[in-house]
Amino acid sequence: MATPAAAGAPGAPAPPRSRKSVTGTRRTVAALFLLPALVLLGALVVYPIGYSVVRSFYDQSGDGFAGVDNYKALFTDEGIRTALKNNVIWVVFAPTVATALGLIFAVLTERVRWGTAFKLVVFMPMAISMLAAGIIFRLVYDQDPDKGVANAVWVGVHDTFAESSAFPKAHPGRDSPLRPQDGGFITKAPVRTGVPVALPLVGVAPDQMPGSAEKAVQARPEQGEITGTAWQDFTRGKGVGTLGAPDPSELGYAGMKIEAVKEGKVVASTKAADDGTFTLPAKADGAQLRLPASNFKEAYNGLDWLGPSLVTPAIIGSYIWMWAGFAMVLIAAGLAGIPRELLEAARVDGANEWQVFRRVTVPLLAPVLAVVAVTLMINVLKVFDLVFIIAPGSSQDDANVLALELYRKGFSEDQPGIASAIAVFLLLLVIPVMWFNVRRLRREVRR
């Protein structure tokens, strides 16, 4: 009978190893449990990527080999080049601004009593889908100030500092003593003291007349002065009223600016009273009366937010509105993990709050800021919904991005080969960012 020592002798066979994973589970069993996930991964990720790579080398029909022609189109097609340029703008500005705002919100609300409520409000847009956010901001950026919030605010601020005209549609009627000049109107003949001047105009809707306007009054002659009336020479009803003379229902052009011009120089000026009457001094005798263009300029209608020049910044603004809350929540979590002793030690050493923020808080938050920025970079490379919904058809080409161009080439223009090339190109753009993120996470695990 063999002794224990004999069993461990050099010549004795080693006992068979149990093939188990690090968790103690047999590898075969572990592989069986992983198999459904691997099948789904292959069907939903690996196969589409492989098929897109292969399809990108074929022509529109899919039967002829096109080589790298589809990839050449990425840098020669005008639409794709615009999309690529806009993607660069998105990657540079959207993650940077969203991360910066998230950092500011997280730091400023850290000590206030209502900080949690504020964070909830800022984070709330994350609960809204891209589709809903696109519809919201399509209305926000509407050109009409009565509909679009952005232009309502912009026009309100503009009109606070720049007076708008009350008579943008006013113009002389038939047999008028006025003729056009430099965007305004001027009398055909010089005026004389003691002879009232009639300046009839039409074209202003009754509801657009100044609120202070009163019934027009025929000016009385005054010795040594030029007097006259500027009014809306229109009365509702066929054959009602007298042209060239104020009628009882007609209103004066309250605030209308009138200038007396001699040899191209303004010698006197005034504004019409609420009833349209005005008076000029004797030095205006022999001058022509001019209604300057400032009386008739179109009302300021705000900015064309969705026009070719502003559409991309406008859409980026809507993206930041949605994702600044996401950045704020992650940064606030990182901020809560910073040892308070370090911040207090910096203050004891004489650092002010700005120095503490710049020299202590931001360096300690650097890993979190990197996570947020990289996540948003990957996200903006795939942005599609906001651009597709917010940008109108007239400026969608100017707001184009690669994901939208992929959709347009693949479905609207029936060019699946170029669409597949764009998809592969997007994957190549995302891979370095993902690799950086994975590498950073592994460094964090080693620490």
Strand order of the largest sheet: 1-2-8-5-6
What is the mean predicted local confidence, pLDDT? 87
The fold-level CATH name of one domain is MetI-like fold
State Rg.
Answer: 37 Å
User: Structural class given helices, strands, pairing?
Assistant: alpha+beta
Helix content: 40-55%
Give the strand tally. Answer: 8
**Which residues form runs of ≥5 with pLDDT under 50?**
4-8
Cα-to-Cα separation, first versus last residue = 54 Å
Provide the β-strand percentage band. 5-15%
* Level-2 CATH architecture of one domain: Orthogonal Bundle
Number of helices: 13
The main pleated sheet reads as: 5 strands, antiparallel
Q: Could you characterize what this model shows?
A:
This protein has helices at 4-7, 27-55, 69-76, 78-108, 115-123, 130-140, 149-161, 311-336, 340-348, 353-381, 385-390, 402-412, 416-446, and strands spanning 178-181, 184-187, 197-201, 226-232, 257-262, 265-271, 277-280, 288-291. By secondary structure, it is α+β, with helices and mostly antiparallel strands. Among the domains are: 77-153 and 305-414, MetI-like fold; 178-295, no CATH class. Helix 2 packs antiparallel against helix 13, helix 5 (115-123) crosses helix 8 (311-336) and helix 10 runs antiparallel to helix 13 (416-446).
